[in-house]
Amino acid sequence: MHNLIELNKTDLEAFVAEDLREPRYRTEQIWQWLWQKRVRDVEAMTNLSRPLREKLASLATIAWPEIARVATSSDGTIKFLLRLHDGKLIETVLIPMADRYSQCLSTQVGCAMACTFCNTGKLGFERNLTYGEIMGQILVGRQYLEDQGMAPLKNLVFMGMGEPLLNLDTLIKVLTDLPCERGLSLSWRRSMVSTVGFPDKLKILGELEIALPAISLHAPTQELRARIMPKAAKVPLDELMRAIDAYPMRPRERITFEYLLLKDVNDSMEHADQLARLIDRKRGKINLIAYNATEDMPYEAPDPDRVEAFEKRLWDHGLTAFIRRSMGADIKAACGQLKADQARSETGDPLPEA
Ligand code: SAH
Question: pLDDT (tens digit, 9 = 90+) per residue, 296-340?
């Protein structure tokens, strides 16, 4: 039995030709039902003949990730805990923007990078997400927004659980299919792939021209980066910066650098000066993120004054820097927080169902 949302566009074409033995235009029809109209039952595909629907139903189902829990923050952030077919849990978050939503997607169950400040890192790596599990998060998010009569989903960030570049083959399939007009119609230019940065993999993405990266830098020197993200820092900082310099971009496009501010670790004026020396202001912009503190972690959130001073210092150096609002703190919206919370309560009370 196939799960139709596990087939990317090319796989679906092959399935239509070889398994259904139908002409090519059927691919477009089925694709549209799956991704634009978001049906969850083959029976709903009413422009297919009854015998064809029966044949399709005998070969395939449509199975979305299941919502295990929804939490809505006072700031409008909506966080989902999703249960996959094997019972594994992942998170996805809808983030309100002026007139639209942006969705933060997970790419792996857990993460192998073990960054010292990250909840997901602490959980360890379990497995890669499949094509349908990544795309399925978007189906769930869009359906929810539509059901609630809320603003549309227009932007994506691959900033949820996992390291997207370590699930590269699947990520490429997802990024390739996002813009399909009769499908999700989401532009990759309005999406951002957040990564600790692997030069060989950045090169592949750059050559395909299907992604804009955001680099989780978090430290301006190799020595400090190795302390707070030891596995990621196995790629030396100068090598990473060379790969970023070589990343193909349109004239006004910029690479985003994420810089997580950890109190008394990387938030001094000296760190800001070092950061400014590292980044070419014509090609890079900086997103400052105040650490979203969790219990059991050896870090604290920076003082708000410090965050602002850090931002100002970068501007003084001619850099473009923004403080990214930390959202959803009341619903544990930082990477892996909800799942970690879930793990802690697993032995306790049963989950409130969505
Ligand atoms: N592995 C990828 C994408 C997932 S993490 C990456 O590292 O970029 C997405 C972003 O959230 C990263 O910049 C990560 O460093 C940051 N992050 C992790 N834990 C956080 C926390 N507790 N508070 C704020 N940001 C956090």
Answer: 889 999 999 999 999 999 999 999 999 987 666 666 666 566 565
By the 10 Å C-beta count (0-12 exposed, 13-18 middle, 19+ buried), 259 is classed as buried
Closest CA to 92 of 63, 55, 46, 134: 134
CA distance 342 to 334: 14
- Helices (DSSP H) in 246-303: which residue ranges? 269-278
Helix axes 237-245, 199-208, angle to 10 degrees: 10
Q: Where are the alpha helices (H) located in the chain, listed in sequence order?
A: 9-14, 25-31, 50-59, 119-123, 131-147, 168-177, 199-208, 222-228, 237-245, 269-278, 304-316, 337-345
Question: What is the distance in A from the centroid of ligand 1 to the CA of 252?
Answer: 26
Q: What is the pTM of this model?
A: 0.93
Nearest to 213 by CA among 274, 168, 179, 170: 168
Closest approach atom of ligand 1 to CA 258: 13
Q: Per-residue pLDDT averaged across 14-28, rounded?
A: 97
Query: Residue 61: exposed, middle, or buried by beta-carbon count in 10 A (0-12, 13-18, 19+)?
Result: middle
Q: Is 91 in the pocket of ligand 1 (CB under 6 A)?
A: no
Give the confidence band of 346 by pLDDT, cuts at 50, 70, 90: very low
Please, which contacts does 21-24 make with residues 24 or more away whose CB atoms are closer than 8 Å?
Answer: 22/52
Question: Each residue of 139-158: pLDDT tens digit?
Answer: 999 999 999 999 999 999 99
The structure tokens listed for 182 are 């009769």
Distance between Cα 126 and ligand 1 center (Å): 18
pLDDT at 251: 86
